[in-house]
Design goal:
Blueprint lengths: L4 H13 L1 H10 L10 H19 L2 H9 L6 H11 L2 H15 L7 H15 L4 E5 L9 E5 L2 E4 L6 H14 L7 E4 L15 E4 L6 H8 L8 H17 L5 H12 L19 E4 L6 H19 L5 H9 L24
Parallel strand pairs: 3-4, 5-6
Antiparallel strand pairs: 1-2
Helix pairs in contact: 1-2, 1-5, 2-3, 2-6, 3-7, 6-7, 7-8, 10-11
Amino acid sequence: MGQPDGLLDTVAAIGLHGPGNIAWRALSRLIHPGSAVTPDGHWRAAALLANGLRSLFNRPESAQLLESLSMGQVYWKAVLRYCAADDLQAVVDEHLHTLRSTASDTPLNDEELWKLADEARQAIASRPSTYVAFDLRHPRQPIRLPGRFALRYGGRGEEQSQVDRKAAVRRDFNSPFWPFVVATTSAGHEGIDFHQWCSAVVHWNTPANPVDFEQREGRVHRFGGHAVRRNLAAAHRADALRSPDPDVWRALYDAARAVSGELGDFAPYWVFPGPAKIERHVLPYPLSRDQARLDRLKADLVRYRLAFGQPRQEDLLNLLRRRETGQVGVPDVLDLRPAPERSHP
């Protein structure tokens, strides 16, 4: 006796879009011939990652999101529809490939696969932060606001709890899951990587010099960054889907390398042309000294980059077109000629 069509559709939906099956397939794409991963190790890592995905959909805010999207009254069916509509498989595939590319080059085995699955799980299952707001009507009863979508990076003190929390926020932000916004002071100014799933920087204050500006931008403009991957996908999606390589992102990079020789050694991992760009948003306060500082910073930034032989052509042309008034004897660009020899008495 044949199964009803509705049951067959349900079984197919679970097989294609169930979070557990998504986790298993995403991990299997990293297991290449010659690796030391055993079937048991593969299943254990998939179960660990699937448990993290289950915790994601068990949260009240996830249920509210799916309800607002009208995914259906039965929650588990709504989860399957959401995973299908937003292609959770592609998201997890990309995330695990990114984690693997930043890990050690040691051959993949059960332990390494478990570590990758656990790092992804921890980012998915991260705890929210609680912020306290002052209530004017009830000063002794502060308003507690749990936050998961936007988090603060850093805090007062350098005790171990603060160090651990910073590491957790950095790990969670470098994932396709919450948080989507990180606010930081100079604690995240340099030496921190935020590029894996971010390509936009908002400068709440105008940097004082081009070095600080470049340091901030460098947090999201790094090896294999989000903007680079988006351009790779836009240019070589069809090539990757035709490739027999189960790791679609490795196929994307292989296709990009084959055609990017004229772009130099930095392509395709650092730069790659396409619609995605590093976004820079500078917000100087109106009628403040920040506006004049921003104008001066733009000119200084061109000269700073020119000194390294890496000017942006548009910025350089704009600087050359504009004559800075009120500054006598200051060249429009840096004079890189050697200093004249001084005569000695």
